Amino acid sequence: KPHGLAVVDIQIVPKSSLSLFKQGQEQKQKKYRCLIWLSTQITDSVLDKIKKAPSFSLSQKTPIRVLHRRALLNRRRSLSITSFEKINDHYMELEVIAQAGTYVKEFIHGDLGRTQPNLGSYLGCVADIALLDVIEVLLDFPRKITPNAEIKEISKNFPAIRDDVI
The whole model's pTM is what? Predict the structure, then answer.
């Protein structure tokens, strides 16, 4: 899998776009990569069950780890497993897409039953998360740009932006 950093569609946006950005916060989704551990051996039947996993409709109480700084609420969120790969008998990598505000770690381990359903309950075992990375924010903001005279004019102030790049 390719690793690294790429910056695309970097641009100056007017302050008036902030309200559009904040509206998008409710609809945005994030794509995560998770390294997880399962107490059960990862067999073909476990992989088949993950392959058939539905889009989960979660009920999440405020997680214990953030309860000291967040209100005690019951949140409804959605999450889908988009890909997975077995690493060894007990570890696997999952990619998921989750609605804004989803506590992904708690989806994996269940947070002592505070997140239902959770991966552990779905698979009938104990599940825990070793690593969690955000790999993409799925929000159409800012708008895609196309090269034009205005961008070329702005780019004169940034010597690192070459004409052949835009």
Answer: 0.77
Q: Which two tokens stand for residue 57?
A: 């409709």
pLDDT computed for residue 145 by the predictor: 66
Per-residue confidence (pLDDT) for residue 107, from 0 to 100: 98
Rg from Cα positions in the chain: 20
CA 102-106-88 angle, 5° bins: 115
Whole-angstrom Cα distance, residue 69 to residue 41?
A: 37
Q: d(Cα 79, Cα 43) in Å, to the nearest integer?
A: 23
Spatial distance between the Cα atoms of 23 and 3, rounded to a whole number of angstroms: 31
Q: What is the mean pLDDT of each run of 10 residues along the chain (166 residues)?
A: 67 77 77 98 97 96 96 96 98 96 97 98 98 90 66 61 50
Give the C-alpha distances (Å, rounded to integers) separating 73 from 11, 51, 64, 81, 104: 37, 31, 12, 25, 16
As a whole number of angstroms, the distance between CA 104 and CA 130 comes to 12
DSSP assignment string, 115-143: EES-HHHHHTS-EEEEEEEEEEEE---SP
As beta bridge partners, residue 92 has 36, 86
Per-residue CA distances from 7 to 10, 22, 42, 74, 136 (Å): 7, 22, 37, 36, 12
Q: What is residue 138's predicted lDDT score, i.e. its pLDDT?
A: 87
